[in-house]
Amino acid sequence: MFEPLLLLNECERIIYLDFDIMLLRGIGELFELKGYCFAAHRGKSLLNPTLKGYEGEFKNARVYRSGIVVYYDNLPNPQECYEQIYRLSAHHGINDQGVLSLLILSAKFKTKELGYEYTGSTYWRKSIGYPIIHAWGKDGRFWNNELVYQFWGKIWSKYYQRWLECGGSEYKSGFICRANYCIERIRYHLAYKLGYAMVENHSTLLGKFKLPFILFGIVWKHRARQREYLKIIKVKPWLKVPPMEYYEDYKEALKEKQSVPYRLGLALINAGKNWYIGGFFKLYEEIKKIKAEQKRSKN
Predict the structure, then answer these.
(1) Where are the beta strands (DSSP E) in 92-211?
(2) 111-114 and 38-46 as β-strands: parallel, antiparallel, unpaired?
Protein backbone atom coordinates (compact mmCIF):
# COMPACT_ATOMS: atom_id res chain seq x y z
CA MET A 1 0.00 0.00 0.00
CA PHE A 2 2.81 2.44 0.76
CA GLU A 3 5.17 1.58 -2.10
CA PRO A 4 3.68 4.39 -4.26
CA LEU A 5 5.52 6.81 -1.97
CA LEU A 6 8.76 5.56 -3.54
CA LEU A 7 7.48 6.06 -7.08
CA LEU A 8 6.30 9.67 -6.93
CA ASN A 9 9.63 10.89 -8.29
CA GLU A 10 8.69 9.31 -11.62
CA CYS A 11 4.85 9.33 -11.50
CA GLU A 12 2.47 12.26 -11.17
CA ARG A 13 -0.38 10.26 -9.65
CA ILE A 14 -0.76 6.70 -8.42
CA ILE A 15 -3.99 4.95 -7.39
CA TYR A 16 -3.74 2.09 -4.91
CA LEU A 17 -6.67 -0.36 -4.68
CA ASP A 18 -7.13 -3.18 -2.17
CA PHE A 19 -7.05 -6.59 -3.83
CA ASP A 20 -10.79 -7.17 -3.34
CA ILE A 21 -11.99 -4.02 -5.10
CA MET A 22 -14.47 -4.56 -7.92
CA LEU A 23 -14.51 -1.79 -10.51
CA LEU A 24 -17.83 -0.88 -12.10
CA ARG A 25 -16.71 2.30 -13.86
CA GLY A 26 -13.55 4.06 -14.93
CA ILE A 27 -11.66 6.00 -12.28
CA GLY A 28 -9.98 8.52 -14.56
CA GLU A 29 -11.56 11.45 -12.70
CA LEU A 30 -9.31 10.72 -9.74
CA PHE A 31 -6.29 11.52 -11.90
CA GLU A 32 -7.72 14.95 -12.71
CA LEU A 33 -7.79 16.22 -9.12
CA LYS A 34 -5.20 18.94 -8.56
CA GLY A 35 -3.56 20.54 -5.56
CA TYR A 36 -3.81 17.51 -3.26
CA CYS A 37 -1.23 15.25 -1.66
CA PHE A 38 -3.62 12.35 -1.06
CA ALA A 39 -7.19 11.27 -1.78
CA ALA A 40 -8.92 8.62 0.31
CA HIS A 41 -12.29 7.64 1.72
CA ARG A 42 -12.73 8.82 5.30
CA GLY A 43 -14.82 6.45 7.35
CA LYS A 44 -16.60 6.72 10.69
CA SER A 45 -14.08 4.77 12.79
CA LEU A 46 -11.83 6.83 15.07
CA LEU A 47 -8.04 6.71 15.24
CA ASN A 48 -8.35 5.25 18.72
CA PRO A 49 -9.19 2.33 18.83
CA THR A 50 -7.97 1.78 15.22
CA LEU A 51 -4.46 2.32 16.59
CA LYS A 52 -4.76 0.59 19.92
CA GLY A 53 -3.19 2.51 22.72
CA TYR A 54 -2.89 5.76 20.77
CA GLU A 55 -3.89 8.66 23.04
CA GLY A 56 -2.44 11.55 21.07
CA GLU A 57 -3.93 14.73 19.65
CA PHE A 58 -5.87 12.96 16.90
CA LYS A 59 -7.35 10.06 18.85
CA ASN A 60 -10.91 11.22 18.10
CA ALA A 61 -10.25 11.97 14.42
CA ARG A 62 -11.92 9.82 11.77
CA VAL A 63 -9.70 7.35 9.94
CA TYR A 64 -8.81 7.37 6.24
CA ARG A 65 -9.68 3.92 4.88
CA SER A 66 -7.36 1.93 2.66
CA GLY A 67 -9.77 0.51 0.06
CA ILE A 68 -8.68 3.22 -2.36
CA VAL A 69 -5.84 5.72 -1.84
CA VAL A 70 -4.55 8.19 -4.42
CA TYR A 71 -1.00 9.55 -4.17
CA TYR A 72 -0.08 12.85 -5.88
CA ASP A 73 3.35 14.24 -6.62
CA ASN A 74 2.43 17.43 -4.71
CA LEU A 75 3.41 15.45 -1.62
CA PRO A 76 6.64 16.93 -0.23
CA ASN A 77 9.45 14.51 0.68
CA PRO A 78 7.70 11.21 -0.17
CA GLN A 79 10.81 9.22 0.82
CA GLU A 80 10.67 10.80 4.28
CA CYS A 81 6.92 9.99 4.46
CA TYR A 82 7.69 6.37 3.56
CA GLU A 83 10.19 6.10 6.41
CA GLN A 84 7.78 7.85 8.78
CA ILE A 85 5.05 5.33 7.93
CA TYR A 86 7.25 2.44 9.03
CA ARG A 87 8.40 4.22 12.16
CA LEU A 88 4.75 4.71 13.09
CA SER A 89 4.04 1.04 12.29
CA ALA A 90 6.88 -0.10 14.52
CA HIS A 91 5.61 2.10 17.36
CA HIS A 92 1.83 1.62 17.09
CA GLY A 93 1.53 -1.78 15.41
CA ILE A 94 0.79 -2.81 11.86
CA ASN A 95 -2.42 -1.07 10.84
CA ASP A 96 -2.24 0.47 7.39
CA GLN A 97 -5.31 2.69 7.80
CA GLY A 98 -4.23 3.91 11.20
CA VAL A 99 -0.66 4.86 10.29
CA LEU A 100 -1.72 6.48 7.02
CA SER A 101 -4.27 8.58 8.89
CA LEU A 102 -1.75 9.57 11.54
CA LEU A 103 0.74 10.62 8.85
CA ILE A 104 -1.86 12.77 7.04
CA LEU A 105 -3.24 14.35 10.19
CA SER A 106 0.05 15.08 11.92
CA ALA A 107 1.64 16.64 8.82
CA LYS A 108 -1.64 18.35 7.77
CA PHE A 109 -1.30 17.14 4.19
CA LYS A 110 -4.06 18.42 1.93
CA THR A 111 -6.26 15.39 1.32
CA LYS A 112 -9.36 14.98 -0.82
CA GLU A 113 -12.00 13.09 1.12
CA LEU A 114 -13.65 10.58 -1.19
CA GLY A 115 -17.28 9.77 -0.49
CA TYR A 116 -19.25 6.60 -1.06
CA GLU A 117 -19.35 7.29 -4.78
CA TYR A 118 -15.91 5.66 -4.89
CA THR A 119 -16.16 2.97 -2.23
CA GLY A 120 -19.26 0.92 -1.55
CA SER A 121 -20.08 -1.88 0.86
CA THR A 122 -21.52 -5.37 0.87
CA TYR A 123 -24.98 -3.86 1.28
CA TRP A 124 -25.68 -3.36 -2.41
CA ARG A 125 -28.49 -0.81 -1.92
CA LYS A 126 -25.84 1.64 -0.73
CA SER A 127 -23.87 0.93 -3.87
CA ILE A 128 -26.42 1.23 -6.70
CA GLY A 129 -24.64 2.74 -9.69
CA TYR A 130 -21.39 3.41 -7.87
CA PRO A 131 -18.04 2.95 -9.64
CA ILE A 132 -16.27 0.75 -7.09
CA ILE A 133 -17.50 -1.93 -4.71
CA HIS A 134 -15.20 -2.97 -1.89
CA ALA A 135 -15.86 -6.42 -0.42
CA TRP A 136 -16.01 -6.07 3.35
CA GLY A 137 -13.99 -8.35 5.61
CA LYS A 138 -12.93 -11.98 5.38
CA ASP A 139 -16.53 -13.29 5.49
CA GLY A 140 -17.99 -10.65 3.20
CA ARG A 141 -16.26 -11.17 -0.13
CA PHE A 142 -17.93 -12.00 -3.42
CA TRP A 143 -16.74 -15.58 -3.43
CA ASN A 144 -17.43 -16.76 0.13
CA ASN A 145 -20.55 -14.92 1.33
CA GLU A 146 -23.85 -16.33 0.08
CA LEU A 147 -25.72 -13.01 0.10
CA VAL A 148 -22.89 -10.99 -1.43
CA TYR A 149 -22.50 -13.61 -4.14
CA GLN A 150 -26.24 -13.38 -4.81
CA PHE A 151 -25.81 -9.68 -5.58
CA TRP A 152 -22.48 -9.63 -7.44
CA GLY A 153 -21.72 -13.26 -8.23
CA LYS A 154 -22.54 -13.01 -11.94
CA ILE A 155 -19.98 -10.26 -12.44
CA TRP A 156 -17.37 -11.99 -10.29
CA SER A 157 -17.91 -15.36 -11.97
CA LYS A 158 -17.20 -13.86 -15.39
CA TYR A 159 -13.77 -12.66 -14.30
CA TYR A 160 -13.15 -15.75 -12.20
CA GLN A 161 -13.42 -17.85 -15.37
CA ARG A 162 -10.87 -15.58 -17.04
CA TRP A 163 -8.66 -16.02 -13.98
CA LEU A 164 -8.84 -19.82 -14.29
CA GLU A 165 -8.14 -19.65 -18.03
CA CYS A 166 -4.99 -17.69 -17.27
CA GLY A 167 -3.79 -20.39 -14.87
CA GLY A 168 -5.06 -18.91 -11.62
CA SER A 169 -5.74 -21.16 -8.64
CA GLU A 170 -9.25 -22.48 -8.04
CA TYR A 171 -11.38 -21.31 -5.12
CA LYS A 172 -12.60 -24.43 -3.30
CA SER A 173 -13.85 -23.26 0.09
CA GLY A 174 -17.43 -22.45 -0.93
CA PHE A 175 -19.62 -20.20 1.18
CA ILE A 176 -18.31 -19.76 4.69
CA CYS A 177 -20.89 -17.13 5.63
CA ARG A 178 -24.60 -16.80 4.87
CA ALA A 179 -24.87 -13.03 5.39
CA ASN A 180 -23.18 -10.59 7.71
CA TYR A 181 -22.61 -6.94 8.52
CA CYS A 182 -26.25 -6.23 9.32
CA ILE A 183 -25.13 -2.94 10.82
CA GLU A 184 -25.00 -1.55 7.26
CA ARG A 185 -28.72 -2.22 6.94
CA ILE A 186 -29.47 -0.30 10.11
CA ARG A 187 -27.23 2.61 9.12
CA TYR A 188 -29.16 2.79 5.85
CA HIS A 189 -32.37 3.54 7.74
CA LEU A 190 -33.67 7.08 7.38
CA ALA A 191 -33.54 7.55 11.15
CA TYR A 192 -29.78 6.90 11.27
CA LYS A 193 -29.06 9.13 8.26
CA LEU A 194 -30.98 12.05 9.77
CA GLY A 195 -29.47 11.62 13.21
CA TYR A 196 -25.94 11.37 11.85
CA ALA A 197 -26.45 14.65 9.95
CA MET A 198 -27.69 16.29 13.15
CA VAL A 199 -24.60 15.15 15.04
CA GLU A 200 -22.27 16.29 12.24
CA ASN A 201 -23.74 19.77 11.86
CA HIS A 202 -24.98 20.92 15.27
CA SER A 203 -21.70 22.26 16.64
CA THR A 204 -21.26 25.35 14.41
CA LEU A 205 -23.53 28.28 13.56
CA LEU A 206 -23.13 27.59 9.84
CA GLY A 207 -23.92 23.92 10.37
CA LYS A 208 -27.10 24.76 12.27
CA PHE A 209 -28.16 27.14 9.49
CA LYS A 210 -27.56 24.50 6.80
CA LEU A 211 -29.07 21.61 8.78
CA PRO A 212 -32.75 21.99 7.69
CA PHE A 213 -31.69 21.95 4.04
CA ILE A 214 -29.39 18.97 4.65
CA LEU A 215 -32.16 17.02 6.39
CA PHE A 216 -34.63 17.80 3.60
CA GLY A 217 -32.08 16.59 1.04
CA ILE A 218 -31.54 13.34 2.95
CA VAL A 219 -35.29 12.62 3.08
CA TRP A 220 -35.73 13.40 -0.62
CA LYS A 221 -32.77 11.24 -1.68
CA HIS A 222 -33.78 8.37 0.63
CA ARG A 223 -37.29 8.25 -0.81
CA ALA A 224 -35.96 8.51 -4.38
CA ARG A 225 -33.64 5.55 -3.76
CA GLN A 226 -36.51 3.60 -2.25
CA ARG A 227 -38.52 4.10 -5.45
CA GLU A 228 -35.47 3.14 -7.53
CA TYR A 229 -34.97 -0.03 -5.47
CA LEU A 230 -38.59 -1.12 -5.97
CA LYS A 231 -38.20 -0.66 -9.73
CA ILE A 232 -34.96 -2.67 -9.79
CA ILE A 233 -36.28 -5.69 -7.90
CA LYS A 234 -39.26 -5.92 -10.27
CA VAL A 235 -36.80 -6.53 -13.11
CA LYS A 236 -34.10 -8.33 -11.07
CA PRO A 237 -35.89 -10.11 -8.20
CA TRP A 238 -32.67 -11.80 -7.01
CA LEU A 239 -31.51 -8.37 -5.83
CA LYS A 240 -34.26 -8.12 -3.24
CA VAL A 241 -32.59 -7.94 0.17
CA PRO A 242 -33.71 -10.52 2.75
CA PRO A 243 -35.20 -9.62 6.15
CA MET A 244 -32.59 -8.44 8.64
CA GLU A 245 -33.24 -11.53 10.75
CA TYR A 246 -31.51 -13.51 7.99
CA TYR A 247 -28.14 -11.98 8.90
CA GLU A 248 -25.87 -13.93 11.20
CA ASP A 249 -24.98 -10.82 13.22
CA TYR A 250 -28.55 -9.50 13.42
CA LYS A 251 -28.85 -9.49 17.22
CA GLU A 252 -25.49 -7.77 17.66
CA ALA A 253 -26.34 -5.16 15.02
CA LEU A 254 -29.57 -4.22 16.79
CA LYS A 255 -27.44 -2.35 19.34
CA GLU A 256 -26.91 0.32 16.67
CA LYS A 257 -30.55 1.32 17.14
CA GLN A 258 -29.53 2.56 20.59
CA SER A 259 -26.80 4.79 19.15
CA VAL A 260 -27.07 8.57 19.44
CA PRO A 261 -27.57 9.17 15.68
CA TYR A 262 -30.34 6.58 15.39
CA ARG A 263 -32.21 7.84 18.45
CA LEU A 264 -31.94 11.46 17.33
CA GLY A 265 -33.19 10.64 13.85
CA LEU A 266 -36.06 8.57 15.17
CA ALA A 267 -37.06 11.40 17.51
CA LEU A 268 -37.04 13.82 14.57
CA ILE A 269 -39.21 11.51 12.45
CA ASN A 270 -41.71 11.11 15.29
CA ALA A 271 -41.78 14.89 15.82
CA GLY A 272 -42.58 15.42 12.15
CA LYS A 273 -45.41 12.91 12.29
CA ASN A 274 -46.91 14.55 15.40
CA TRP A 275 -46.14 18.22 14.78
CA TYR A 276 -49.79 19.21 15.25
CA ILE A 277 -49.82 17.98 18.84
CA GLY A 278 -46.53 19.53 19.91
CA GLY A 279 -44.20 17.01 18.37
CA PHE A 280 -41.30 19.45 18.06
CA PHE A 281 -41.54 20.46 21.73
CA LYS A 282 -41.21 16.77 22.57
CA LEU A 283 -38.22 16.60 20.17
CA TYR A 284 -36.45 19.31 22.17
CA GLU A 285 -36.98 17.34 25.39
CA GLU A 286 -35.83 14.11 23.74
CA ILE A 287 -32.63 15.76 22.49
CA LYS A 288 -31.89 17.03 26.02
CA LYS A 289 -32.47 13.52 27.37
CA ILE A 290 -30.17 11.89 24.79
CA LYS A 291 -27.42 14.46 25.41
CA ALA A 292 -27.64 13.95 29.18
CA GLU A 293 -27.42 10.16 28.81
CA GLN A 294 -24.48 10.50 26.44
CA LYS A 295 -22.67 12.76 28.92
CA ARG A 296 -23.25 10.27 31.75
CA SER A 297 -21.98 7.37 29.64
CA LYS A 298 -18.78 9.27 28.81
CA ASN A 299 -18.19 10.06 32.47
Answers:
(1) 111-114, 132-134
(2) parallel
